[in-house]
Specification:
The protein has about 650 residues and is an alpha/beta fold. It has 22 helices and 30 strands. Helices cover about 35% and strands about 25% of the residues. It has an eight-stranded mixed beta sheet, with helices on both faces. The structure holds 5'-O-[(S)-butoxy(hydroxy)phosphoryl]adenosine. It is an enzyme of class 6 (ligase).
Amino acid sequence: MSDEQQGGITTVLKEDRSFPPPQEFQTRASVKSMEEYEQLWQKSIDDSETFWTEQAETLLDWDQRWETLLEWNAPFAKWFVGGKLNACHNCVDRHLLTWRKNKAAIVWEGEPGDSRVLTFSDLHREVCKFSNALKSIGVTKGQRVTIYMPMIPELAIAVLACARIGAPHSVVFGGFSSEALADRNNDAEASVMITADGGWRRGKIIPLKDNVDECLTKSPTVKNVIVYKRTGQEISMESGRDHWWHELVEEQSADCPAEPMDSEDPLFLLYTSGSTGKPKGILHTTAGYLLGATLTTRYIFDLKEEDTYWCTADVGWITGHSYIVYGPLSNGATTVMYEGAPNWPDAGRFWDVIEKYRVNILYTAPTAIRAFIKSGDQWPKKHDLTSLRLLGTVGEPINPEAWMWYHEVIGGGRCPIVDTWWQTETGSIMISPLPGATPTVPGCATRPFFGIQPQIVDKEGKEVTQGRGGFLVMAKPWPSMLRNIWGDEERFKQTYWSQVAGKYFTGDGARRDEKGYFWILGRVDDVINVSGHRLSTMEVESALVSHDDVAEAAVVGRPHEVKGEAITCFVTLEEGKQPSPELKTELSKHVVDQIGALARPEEIRFTDSLPKTRSGKIMRRLLRDVAAGRESQGDTSTLEDFTVLAQLRDGDE
Ligand code: WT7
């Protein structure tokens, strides 16, 4: 098989096209050359104390200055110790003292075509009223609040209101099922849930409140539910427990002081999948997180005051937290929010939104780009995309074909592309080009951001030589790093800090080329990346075995041209149960009920037994080969990187 046929990772590594920043872009950029970047980066590593001190002084408003920049008792970090600030104040209030008070903060478009614009002063009023509404039902500092909402401005308002009163939010993506919502809510022990009657997706209503009702039969901690009326269908409201948003807010004053929070007070929890079935509540704290989000947004998207910036993620993911809400608003930027599906009512919707609001910066996922390529160039070609000046991608490796299409068809050849590598745990972007400085290479996340020191190491923790694959780790703590896993310190230590002593283990494989560019190879653990969404194979396996007919299940990812990876399930049945197409459908639905539509299996295969090692461990490498239609252990000479990954993953198989 040739490299071309293999596509993906193999082609990526043969990539020798390089795109220097366009002159016009470079002239106006805040960092204008590789020399400048290298100098700044070196300084930020050699004297990180000065670097972070200066950034925190320049970029954030503090109620009280910190005393100690960093207390690092690995793996526990405390940044800006003794400092006080409020994230909501930084995202909203401080802009009211400038001409920005009537600048658009949020430009929102609903899926049915309705739209709203909230200025910073509108946002301030709404956030204050809603903060008071939360207080009126007894929410106090430190109490967790679960948010399960569609992509409407009230989602951002709810997040900011929690930050304002010091109640850590836990946003659960609206695509998760009631079961998944209950798991996350129970782990966080939230007493309040904020939701909506529904949200629009492909012309249909996602029944959020119905899901909440279902969830609450398993979530006894919740005493109050606030419901925003979005879709208007009949829902049930339990008196004493459920409150309409508009009724609760109506009576509130628009005056609500922002609570001065300690730097290390929790700002939010966000659940993400790990290599076991149970999702992890990633804990981010106030000052460090906000600094990371603010700083990276400013430099990596090279923000200008007049920019209209659109990140197409959902606020239910970390990308939406950092790059729809906190990062852009803290910088006083105009952030676009879109409620619905990218291909509704047709494949031109994104391009329509860009043309309509004259979007200058677009940040989206490779899976979306690949879906657009499939639907054809005629869709973007129908729209005026000349307002765009910068493009970004995130969530998974981008294949060079998709990168080139994005560059040419969407960017008209004039927009730099920032391929940004980071994770829920890192809080903000870690490896990315700086658009005015870094020559980009299709499929490559290039160089570390300021203050970030990634390394590639082997199993013993020794740095590998240039060009070789290894584990991606971080050698230095950084302000927006996760602080813990909610309620599970052991797992925190185990997952991130025991692979290599004193260094943060990312779970990704990577290699470095002769330019010092980092190439991300993919996960080395049992996590798969489906359409840029992180899923644990064990999570899907436990969903499958919770079905009465299933004896054992093994789940692997296989390469998929649009989704990146697709879920393939190998299932053995209980004695006496017969495989059938109906059972496949039923199992598929069962997984969706347990987790959500994002976990819908692409393929279910019934088998009499699963391949195992003598110690009883499932041999996933074999299953991945079977799922991908690759010949197992046969000729893999053209699959160099699959084998690197396989070795990293399965060294002990
Ligand atoms: C995993 C993190 C925070 C971004 C949204 C996903 C993969 C992320 C890239 C990239 C190659 C990437 C990694 C990472 N990933 N960005 N630019 N190139 N891979 O956040 O759900 O926490 O997933 O996404 O495998 O570990 P997440």
